Amino acid sequence: MSLTVAVVGATGAVGQEMVKVLEQRSFPVGKLRLFASSRSKGKEVNFNGSKVVVEDLSEADLSGIQIALFSAGSKISKEYAPKFVEKGATVIDNSKAFRMYPDVPLVVPEVNPDDVKWHRGIIANPNCSTIQMVVALKPIYDKVGIKRVVVSTYQAVSGTGYKAIAELEEEVKAYVEGKEYTPSVYPYQIAFNALPHIGPFENNGYTEEEMKMLNETRKIFGDPKIMVSATTVRIPVFRSHSESVTIETIEKITAEEVKRLLREAKGVKVIDEPKENLYPLAIDAAYKDEVFVGRIREDLAFSKGISFWVVSDNLRKGAALNAVQIAELLI
């Protein structure tokens, strides 16, 4: 099998990671086409020992593409994803544009792979913070059910993009040199700080990112009753999101049973030896594919509660890898 595959938003942080993942997983790419804005037209990207020239999306002929991986933002997805579908491609979209459309599957391959079967040309990639959480929740959900989730996230600046990475670097440099630096990506300095603000605030006091974690979790599990209360925080880490998760289960389960379930789960790696100071770290999860789970313990507030720590590379499993895994399900 040999496919023509497109990456839209190919010069962005996630787009570049998509190209790497396609190569690393030996996805059957016969021809790779890379699309971005006019600013990136003509740039060359290495892929499987060859150079692929980036095309201007607004000028491109879209015919002949079978799978298109999108990571160019909601506006571009809404405008161009239907055009790709009209030309015969299946679109896997990393933006929020289609996630909550009832006729668009929202897929995490370790959790709800069968949902790809009812796609109508577009499959949505969930939010990065949702993906790693539901991968960890899935084995527990299947075993004893989950009533509610309380989660706080500690999210890397790469989730915002290259400009945020550069801003953190410049702020650290300015701090060390004793200079002033005015932030432009975030409303406040991110270096040596924590911003409890990801996405615009909604009328209920939660941010858009926090509501995504509720709504997307319900859709992925097909369970409108599961409750999720999230607080999402941006921290001065370049790569990998961390999450503190507490769940109330429907049936009682012990921490040891959870550890066993997660050790057997696909895509999960348990690192949980607290007496030896072994637990998941953002710096260790960077550039890796697994969802790392540790600090697994029975919760003290809920009689049927479990608390744990989840870390994963937001550019890989949280975005690019999950999209490519969806493409693998299609073939």
Write the layout of secondary structure elements.
Blueprint: E1 3-8, H1 13-24, E2 29-36, E3 44-47, E4 50-56, E5 67-70, H2 74-86, E6 90-93, E7 122-124, H3 128-144, E8 146-155, H4 162-177, H5 208-221, E9 227-234, E10 241-249, H6 255-264, E11 268-270, H7 282-285, E12 291-298, E13 305-312, H8 316-330
Parallel strand pairs: 1-2, 1-5, 2-4, 5-6, 6-7, 8-9, 11-12
Antiparallel strand pairs: 3-4, 8-10, 10-13, 12-13
Descriptive overview:
With 331 residues, the chain is of the alpha/beta class. The chain has two domains: 3-125 and 319-330, NAD(P)-binding Rossmann-like Domain (Rossmann fold, 3-Layer(aba) Sandwich); 130-314, Dihydrodipicolinate Reductase, domain 2. It contains eight helices and 13 strands. Strands 3-4-2-1-5-6-7 form a seven-stranded mixed beta sheet, with helices on both faces. α1 packs across α8, α3 runs parallel beside α5 and α3 crosses α8. The chain is globular, with a radius of gyration of 20 Å. The model has no long low-confidence stretch (mean pLDDT 97).
Q: Which range best describes the helical content: under 10%, 10-25%, 25-40%, 40-55%, 55-70% or over 70%?
A: 25-40%
Kindly report the CATH topology of the largest domain: Dihydrodipicolinate Reductase, domain 2
Mean pLDDT: 97
CATH class of the largest domain: Alpha Beta
Which short descriptors sum up this protein?
6-stranded mixed beta sheet; 7-stranded mixed beta sheet; Dihydrodipicolinate Reductase, domain 2; Rossmann fold; single chain; 331 residues; alpha/beta
